[in-house]
């Protein structure tokens, strides 16, 4: 079956997976709400996220400030909406970079094989031996706190899993008849890997990307919590939780609402990841 003929089949499988799993619609709707809030933040935020109302500092949720104010009198709702931008952009960009680099490494390692494959996989095993947060912490600490360094740190932590996912099907696909036919016709190695192997595994990589984006958002929040994320005063969910942690007994809303935002985003991404996995898994479709 050609790649072009597989596209409608995958679309039908995705639609059937969403129909069988009604919870996936909840995840999709929840993620759309969060994305729309981030995109239209200037229109939806009632206040400037950096504007201080010192006279109204540490105010509980009210008609004027729906989610209360922080220690500087800044509106928590406005900062929460703008914080979604940072979390989503960091998560998406970091996972996209990790997906491209990791997939390229996995395909190249699996296709070449031999000593090169063993060396690359040994190096990736070393990276996988470190917990994601610990590895991200070390990289972020060495690079320093900034938006670009945060993206780089998270992307590096996610390269090894993507390489592992891309390598396994590459080893199986390079023995297939259409690859042997391509070799016989004189196709170059980059063409075989890019045009004939990668399209046959892209669905698995995308599904993993949707799931690991949730992990990237959690890592971003954790690094921001300990001060290695985007520098203040830019609002991020992790830094908002850190600010609220100091006043958790008296001003519970400072930490609770950003925590709920992270929870809902991660939950939505995991639900969608499960639906995408069901759509591409032949065993699940058969059931």
UniProtKB/TrEMBL annotation:
Q: Locate the transmembrane regions by residue number.
A: 23-45, 88-116, 123-143, 192-214, 252-273
Q: Does the keyword Hydrolase apply?
A: no
Q: Gene3D superfamilies from the xrefs?
A: MetI-like
Q: Which of UniProt's keywords are assigned here?
A: Cell membrane, Membrane, Peptide transport, Protein transport, Transmembrane, Transmembrane helix, Transport
Q: Which InterPro entries match?
A: BP-dependent_transpt_permease (IPR050366), MetI-like (IPR000515), MetI-like_sf (IPR035906), OppC_N (IPR025966)
Residues annotated as domain ABC transmembrane type-1: 84-273
Which SUPFAM superfamilies is this protein grouped with? Answer: MetI-like
What GO terms in the biological process aspect are recorded for it?
peptide transport; protein transport; transmembrane transport
Q: Which CDD domains match?
A: TM_PBP2
GO cellular component terms, A-Z:
plasma membrane
Major subcellular site: membrane
- Compartments (UniProt record): Cell membrane
Its membrane topology, per UniProt?
Answer: Multi-pass membrane protein
Q: Which family does it belong to?
A: Belongs to the binding-protein-dependent transport system permease family.
Name used for this protein in its record: Peptide/nickel transport system permease protein
Write down the species: Salipiger marinus
Which classification does the entry list for the species?
Bacteria, Pseudomonadati, Pseudomonadota, Alphaproteobacteria, Rhodobacterales
